[in-house]
Design a protein that fits this description.
By secondary structure, the chain is an alpha+beta fold. About 30% of the residues lie in helices and about 30% in strands. The protein contains 6 helices and 11 strands. The chain has a 5-stranded antiparallel beta sheet with strand order 7-11-10-9-8, covered by helices on one side. The radius of gyration is 17 Å and the shape is globular. The relative contact order is 0.14.
Amino acid sequence: MPLLYKTTHPLLGIWKLDESADELRALLPESEWAELLAVDGTPRLQLEARRKEWMSSRLLVKELLGRTCGIKHAASGAPLLEDGSYHISISHTRGYVAVLLSAQGRTGIDIEYYSERVKKIRSRFLSPEEEAFILPQFETEQLLLCWCAKETLYKIAGLEDIDFSCHLHVRPFRFSSPEGFLTVYETKTAQQNRYILRYEVRPEYILTYFAPEASNFK
């Protein structure tokens, strides 16, 4: 079972999608899959890649909680645990699925596979101020971190009509370590909420996340 890793503080898991959909299906009884599908409103899962993402996220929830729990969706599309015991955030990218749970409040996670393609879309999410701190020697890493950080902030904030370059912001940072922290904030509301995200840079993927109970985020 390619559970890449999990942590308990916060409750976070990453699944490496090496199995086929049939192999993932064999990891739970058919009766449990039927219950999970019923909670989620029987989503359209014709594509195998989509089925694998859907199943692995449910398997991650069971791995983190020690029990099976359905996931439904709010009108906005945000995931919600069926029993409301935790806040949940889910992210998937090519070959990986990540799940983060929090008992204390809104949470957010984003995972992206490592790719140079982010350079082609930088104008969609970077402000001029953010462009100014991108260093040539760490261009791809910093761009991917900014993208992931803003996706994470978007999930935490839960706001509509968001412009990533105008309303979501990453404070200047220098990339010098495969793990660290980023400060992000939004200017869509009068409160201009601010968060400190944890990040991880691996050869295969970039990860950013926030959970209120983790002491590192105080």
